[in-house]
Design a protein that fits this description.
mainly beta; Neuraminidase; 5-stranded antiparallel sheet; 26 strands; signal; Glc/Sorbosone_DH; 6-blade_b-propeller_TolB-like
Length: 365
């Protein structure tokens, strides 16, 4: 039996315990309940219309969760579980109710010891027991050794286009190299082909899938109410960012950053350079941002258009608002330990993953 906890607001950005709501955030009465627990390294969640959900486990399993019960979905592509890599994101197609199509990102073996981020499409069987007609749509070229910075969110725009975030794999200079997929946001047609209006199509030495570049390790992505893409990405020591992603733009890594290297040394040339974008918001010290969601306002109307980002390091969910963006509040409870993913369900409830608790939770009213 799931037992909900009643919440009467959430943290102001400067507080350290569950308290009253920051005035700018919009007071809400809400409840939080566990949808499933006992999961090993959950990474992403995709809620369905009946309060069931798909959940990825980094080790390579895709799970179907319903009424507190969990079953394994067969047919997942072969996954390399190494370091930060494994089976990562799961996203429902925008027409899932009719097509039952889902998109998965994962780390695959590319031979010679190299591994890299890949994207697959599949159809979930009617009984949710298996993936059918699985097809790889994309794999980054070329993969590299090592188990860090895979990025790996996939989101689908209203026009059907797919956007996938890819980390620079620890190879900092690759983020500025248009001949490599490292440190990029890529854009694909739904079938995995390259849209001809991508910015670097036909440019010698550039990968045509690239939409934007200069990213370090973008692990969150979501569209706002106007259809703009927002991404959260890890900085080094400081300099975690939320960026509005625009076609062909350079987001600076590793030339500019508001953080420093872990050694304390300056990163690149400072915090600004002509031709490179400034973040919409940044954190210093780092919070280790993961999933990102822009909220519709369906269940909590005063939060309409607000951006929510999970913190892996400080165990809370950040709420951002305004122009320029400001962190107006934090949701911080015993449930928000190392928040790996955060999404909006079809009914407007907010679902999130706690990696430490090995659980998926739902915030609702």
């Amino acid at each position: 039996m799931r037992i909900p906890k009643i919440l009467t607001g959430f943290l102001p950005a400067v507080a350290v315990a569950l308290c009253c709501t920051a005035p700018a955030s919009g007071q809400q009465n809400m409840m939080i309940e566990p949808m499933i627990s006992g999961l090993e390294s959950p990474w992403a969640v995709a809620p369905l219309t009946d309060q069931s959900a798909l959940v990825t486990l980094k080790g390579g399993d895709l799970m179907f969760v319903k009424a507190g019960e969990v079953t394994r979905v067969s047919g997942v592509p072969e996954v390399v579980d190494e370091g930060q890599g494994g089976l990562l994101d799961v996203t429902l197609a925008i027409d899932f109710d009719t097509t039952r199509e889902v998109f998965l990102t994962y780390v695959k073996d590319q031979g010679g010891g190299s591994i890299g981020t890949a994207l697959a499409r599949a159809r979930l069987s009617a009984d949710a027991s298996a993936l059918e007609d699985v097809a790889e749509l994309f794999a980054m070229q070329t993969g590299t050794r090592g188990g860090r910075h895979f990025g790996s969110r996939v989101v689908q725009a209203a026009d059907g286009m797919l956007f996938v975030t890819i980390g620079e794999r620890g190879d900092q200079l690759a983020a500025q190299d248009l001949s490599r997929h490292n440190g990029k946001v890529i854009r694909l047609n739904r079938d995995g082909s390259v849209p001809q209006d991508n910015p670097f199509v036909g440019q010698s030495g550039a990968r045509p899938e690239i939409w934007s570049y200069g990213h370090r390790n973008p692990q969150g992505a979501g569209f706002d109410l106007e259809g703009n893409l927002w991404v959260s990405e890890h900085g080094a020591k400081g300099g975690d960012e939320v960026n509005r992603i625009e076609k062909s733009r350079n987001y600076g890594w590793p030339v500019i950053s508001f953080g420093v290297h872990y050694s304390g040394a300056q990163i690149g040339e400072g915090s600004a350079k002509e031709g490179m974008e400034q973040p919409g918001f940044y954190w210093d010290p780092s919070i280790a941002p993961s999933g990102l969601m822009v909220y519709s306002g369906k269940m909590f109307p005063t939060w309409q258009g607000d951006i929510f980002v999970g913190s892996l390091k400080f165990d809370y969910i950040a709420q951002l608002r305004g122009e320029p963006l400001v962190e107006v509040a934090q949701i911080k409870t015993d449930e928000t330990l190392r928040v790996r993913d955060i999404v909006e369900a079809p009914d407007g409830a907010i679902w999130f993953i706690s990696e430490i608790n090995g659980a998926v939770y739902r915030i609702f009213r």
